[in-house]
Specification:
The chain contains 3 helices and 6 strands. It is globular, with a radius of gyration of 14 Å. By secondary structure, the chain is of the alpha+beta class. It starts with 12 loop residues before the first strand and ends in a 7-residue tail after the last helix. Strands 1-2-3 form a 3-stranded antiparallel β-sheet. A 3-stranded antiparallel β-sheet has the order 4-5-6.
């Protein structure tokens, strides 16, 4: 069973803001970090989004208005986020959330580039 690594930064606080549009995390090393529900949804660690192997990721489109409607703890190593579009199969480990918090600008830019290359939109068609 995968447990926390000793050096895994655990957020001191998690809270929803703006009616579930934003997840705010507070870290000792990064301070307060805001991650949009859209960002967390399009980078969900679920097989539905990540696919089954490198290169099999499924581009998520039309998620600009998605909200987080629930947060459930999973042991002492992750949370499950429940989204307004019904998606709830991704487990966001402390490692993943910290990586997202550190690398959000680059990851977001990569997502926008992938959308553009596919001729798709963040907004529902």
């Amino acid at each position: 069973m995968a447990g926390l690594q000793n050096n895994t930064p655990v957020p001191e606080e998690l809270r929803l803001r703006s009616g579930g549009q934003t997840l705010v995390l507070t870290y000792p090393d990064l301070g307060e970090v805001s991650l949009s529900a859209e960002f967390l949804r399009v980078y969900s660690p679920s097989a539905e989004v990540r696919g089954h192997g490198i290169g099999n990721e499924i581009l998520q489109i039309g998620k600009a208005t998605v909200r987080i409607t629930g947060i459930e703890p999973v042991g002492n190593y992750a949370v499950k986020l429940i989204f307004s579009d019904g998606h709830d199969s991704g487990l966001y480990s402390w490692d993943i959330l910290h990586e997202f918090s550190r690398n959000r600008p680059q990851l977001w830019q990569r997502y926008l580039e992938r959308l553009e290359q596919a001729g798709c939109s963040r907004h529902s068609e």
